[in-house]
Design brief:
One of its GO terms (cellular component) is nucleus. One of its GO terms (biological process) is chromatin remodeling. GO terms for molecular function: chromatin binding; transcription coactivator activity. Helices cover 66% and strands 0% of the residues. Helix 2 runs antiparallel to helix 3. With 130 residues, the chain is mainly alpha-helical. The chain has 4 helices and no strands.
Length: 130
């Protein structure tokens, strides 16, 4: 109790500030809290979290280099274009799904209301995009 192992509110407040991956690292290291002082444990967890952030940043910089970008202003433009394309693809997928749904309702003669039993048509299932 004196070491703060049962202080749930403090632990939850710290966990809310961290990302999912950072909380995963902290939860994996939590059993070691019993063997070292709390301050040393917190420093160790912070070190691992810092390493996680550095590795993510390095991966992002490598992605920029593979794309042929030489400076961070180009990287910002690259990120905004990538985000725009991803949103456009998601909007296109939603549009395609809406069209398929409308076509399915037209094929079954259903206008979105109740379906009479036995009148359900078997529709082909498209594979889920990766």
């Amino acid at each position: 109790v004196a070491r703060g192992l049962l202080n749930v509110r403090r632990i939850q407040a710290v966990e809310r500030k961290r990302s999912w991956a950072e909380n995963r690292v902290a939860s994996l290291l939590r059993p070691f809290l019993r063997f070292v002082p709390a301050a040393e444990h917190d420093a160790t967890v912070d070190g691992f979290v810092h390493e996680l952030r550095l590795r993510a940043r390095i991966a992002k910089l490598k992605e920029y280099r593979r794309a042929g970008l030489a400076n961070l202003s180009d990287a910002d433009a690259y990120d905004s274009e990538k985000r725009r394309r991803r949103e456009a693809a998601a909007a296109g997928l939603q549009h395609a799904q809406a069209q398929a749904s409308a076509a399915a309702m037209a094929a079954t003669g259903n206008s979105g209301g109740m379906v009479a039993s036995g009148s359900r048509a078997q529709l082909p299932v498209d594979p889920v995009p990766a």
